[in-house]
Write a structure and sequence with these properties.
Elements (H helix, E strand, L loop, with lengths): L2 E7 L3 H11 L7 E8 L2 E8 L2 H8 L8 E7 L14 E2 L5 E9 L2 H10 L12 H9 L4 H9 L4 E9 L6 E6 L4 E5 L2 E5 L9 E6 L5 E4 L4 E5 L2 E3 L4 E2 L15 H7 L1 H9 L19 H6 L2 E6 L1 H18 L3 E5 H4 L10 E7 L5 H12 L3 E6 L5 H5 L2 E4 L12 H20 L5 H36 L4 E6 L2 H17 L2 E6 L16 E6 L5 H13 L3 E7 L11 E5 L7 H19 L18
Parallel strand pairs: 16-17, 16-18, 18-19, 19-20, 21-22, 21-23, 23-24, 24-25
Antiparallel strand pairs: 1-4, 1-10, 2-3, 2-4, 5-6, 6-7, 7-8, 8-12, 9-10, 9-11, 11-15, 12-13, 13-14
Bound molecules: fructose -6-phosphate (F6R).
Fructose -6-phosphate (F6R) binds next to helix 9.
Length: 609
Amino acid sequence: MCGIAGYIGEKQALPFLISGLKKLEYRGYDSAGIAIYNEGRIEVRRQVGKIAELERSIRGQVIEGTQGIAHTRWATHGMPSNRNSHPHRDSDGHIAVVHNGIIENYLELRNELEDKGYTFTSETDTEVVPNLIAEYFEGNLLEAVEKAKARLRGSYAAVCMSQQDPDYLVGIRQDSPLIVGYGKDGNYFASDIPALIGHVDRYTVLKNGETAVIDRDGVTIYVDGKAVEPEVMELTMDIDAAEKGGYDHFMLKEIIEQPRALKECLSGRIAYGKRVIDLGELKLDAAKAEKINKIVMVACGTAYHACYVGRYVYEKLLRIPVEVEIASEFRYRDPILDEHTLTIVVSQSGETADTLAALAEAKRKGSHILAITNVWESSIAREAHDVIYTRAGIEIAVASTKAYTTQILAIYLFGLYMAELKGKMIRREIQTIINELYRLPEKVQQIIDDNLDIIKEMADEIAEFEDAFFIGRDLDYVVAREGALKLKEISYIHAEAYAAGELKHGTLALIVDRVPVICLCTQRNLEEKMVSNIKEAQTRNGQIFSICFEGDTLVPAVSEHVCYLPKTLDLLAPILTVIPLQLIAYYASVKRGADVDKPRNLAKSVTVE
Ligand code: F6R
């Protein structure tokens, strides 16, 4: 949600600023801009639209300078336009700022600054920041930023520079991510790692409240005005992780990467010693687990759908009540939890503001917090008592795919771990599930290798319609919800998911004129019930697309299009069922000419509430 890049060093700043922004474009793509300092002047260029538009608008211009800041925006305050684009400057134009987040008290600050004669040219909350810094500026940018920071309320990651006190950049962070990179020929700021790959070999993730100063010689991190020793990490990812690697879209690359991601997620987590599941040093030991009498799972979007799988799985395996909550609702509902409740927060980015706030609320109420996240040292990982990393690798497409399947895998692993700790399952039962977990990566691969033709055919047909319905029962219903989200977010087809038995209570009225009904049928004990529900839809002239296991004959007999999955345990089916759904959404989006990786109005990593 908004991407920030900054550089100061020996090289020209422009190439990194543009390439860095492109790597961060998944965070927002409504408008983009750069500010480069050279010989006493800050040059600013801003352009509504994607980064390619900014590039086009500056083509042929000489914008020299070895320090600069840049931004790609996901609009919150003020519609996408040139004047609302970042960087923003103070009224006199000597301080430039890029910002990710929301300054909640911006109206109050704006009124105060306007009374003092500052003028504003945008509708953004951000523009108060350079003006506030200017108000406190007495020749030292760092001091002015620190004073301004003390007045800001809300969430921010911001990088600032001044033409009156040049030669360094100042970055601040509160609840929005900001990373400092240490390079050989300069130092860097970025919202996320992909921008830094290939430029730096070490980095520091700024913590809330910290201020970072980068200049040509080094980096200094301050807490309350005092320099502190930063935690420096090695950047080991190679450039391929942040490139499309020959695929047309990141989403397709990330779908195809799932067998590898699942193997990574499993790796080293099955032991054969005292316990079968090894999740590292979890603080939730047997004594604590014994007292847990309720699990609450909280997340947003696709991660929320992964939680739903968790609910069905944990209730089956652990016989503990599980509640699943949308993070943005959870914290304002005064949820009932205590030290006997385990709260599991799931987040790919580890930075989603609503999920982070829900975590804080659950922690305040004494609940033990387990985070399942993909991003090392993310805010959610830091705030939780325990973390299971999904190890999916960088996910860049806005539509989440490999993060979802690895979240579900982590959810299974933790369920088995708890079942073992609480003595709910015997070792042989656990072992049966584990044996099958190990086979999932190759089964996902098999779906991708063997079913692309039928999946593309299904997608081509579905792409002709403006509505689609997804139905299923039990775990199939839960995955149907994710299938519907995937389809609507990237192809813009209106898609809804229903528990198959619920159709006849209202929605059946919409099943007419060959509208696509995508039926998930992997829960063997419910197959006959599913077949009846499919018949109900077919009788109303719905067009039936089914996903079922190889060898199934009942479901194909009532379907027009069938995608067969390799067999697995019903409990583990979600990891397989979702693969054709991801691919259907992908190919439908391509067929409709939509921008697959950057769907309209969306952005990845939603760091505002
Ligand atoms: C949809 C999607 C979003 C995210 C949601 C939570 O494809 O990616 O719905 O799942 O914004 O994001 P994280 O998992 O980063 O907390």
